[in-house]
Amino acid sequence: MPDPQPVAAGETVELAGSEWYVTGYGLSTFAEDSDLAGMAAIDVGFHVIPGDDRASELLENQCRFRAVDGQGRSWEPTTEFSSRDTGDLDPGNIMSGCRNADSEPIAPGEDQLLIVTFKVPADVVEELRYEVRVATRPEPDAPSPAALLFSADELGGGD
Asked: What does pTM read for this prediction?
């Protein structure tokens, strides 16, 4: 596993030929009487802009996400809440690499929103950072990934 490069909230950084930034996260908590009491669903808004065809191909081959807390624990994305309405947003697909909303490669220069959802204990939300890893070689069996670790602010949290 690569050591991820830390990225402050609001910064844009290059990774494997693509520009990346995070717009923030949205938080949903669950009622105390539900099966998910004490848990939270966090939707993190990643944006990726491939610089060229090779960067687009790398995104297509391997693009992985995880949430990491201050103790080094991590959580993978969940599809448990994927049926939620995203309104006017047209998020891309992260189930097999990073692709656009039609599951096609993200075109060079296209700013693609990727909404990544994590189910985590509610008490770790404020300390989470969000990692993205992308292959640096196009062969899926030899990915040599590079990684970024984003800080993010809660969307609407400052209002």
From this structure: 0.85
